[in-house]
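In the design runs reported in the main text, the only information available to the sequence generator was the tokenized backbone. The following block is the verbatim input for one such run; it is reproduced so that readers can re-run the procedure and compare outputs position by position.
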């Protein structure tokens, strides 16, 4: 087997950034149950530092991985992120190992996104994703929090299509009404100048 080269997987663009299709999901950098620090912190940091060498330029993480551990390891190993796109997520509360509770309260989503700014050491999140829709919180309130994050410049606004900058995991749970609301939000931002 030859050397690994993520560039061989092909590329696509997210906004103006070209990324290789083979990226890295940072969930398993943490301890058992996606909880706490890894058993071998040095190995986790070495894994992250090797990504550039093998052509990986897209890393997916979340505030709930650890919680907070994955984002902090990424910063320690890779900051500043030259040539990398770091995507992060919020919307899940972690009461313990292997426990994931949706939390789409707007105040929570906004606080977690701001916390990700600090943990990742960036001024703006290039790609922010809502983990899933919280069925206990009206969807419009959750999307309203996303709008506020865009307005405040916490997350990068769309250049062409909102879906590239605000990912929504578990898209199958979103009915056409919500997809149309997200598209409408994208059209709203296409007509507005960026906040910075």
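Verbatim output:
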């Amino acid at each position: 087997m030859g050397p690994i080269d993520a560039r061989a997987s092909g590329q696509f663009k997210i906004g103006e950034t070209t990324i290789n299709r083979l990226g890295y999901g940072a969930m398993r950098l943490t301890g058992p149950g996606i909880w706490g620090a890894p058993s071998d912190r040095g190995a986790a940091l070495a894994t992250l530092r090797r990504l550039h060498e093998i052509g990986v330029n897209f890393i997916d993480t979340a505030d709930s991985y650890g919680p907070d551990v994955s984002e902090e390891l990424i910063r320690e190993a890779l900051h500043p992120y030259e040539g990398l796109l770091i995507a992060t997520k919020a919307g899940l509360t972690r009461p313990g190992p292997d426990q994931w509770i949706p939390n789409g309260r707007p105040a929570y989503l906004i606080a977690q996104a701001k916390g990700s700014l600090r943990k990742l050491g960036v001024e703006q999140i290039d790609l922010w994703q809502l983990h899933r829709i919280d069925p206990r919180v009206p969807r419009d309130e959750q999307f309203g929090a996303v709008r506020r994050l865009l307005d405040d410049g916490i997350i990068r606004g769309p250049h062409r299509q909102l879906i590239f900058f605000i990912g929504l995991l578990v898209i199958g749970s979103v009915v056409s009404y919500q997809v149309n609301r997200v598209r409408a939000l994208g059209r709203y931002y296409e007509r507005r100048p960026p906040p910075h």
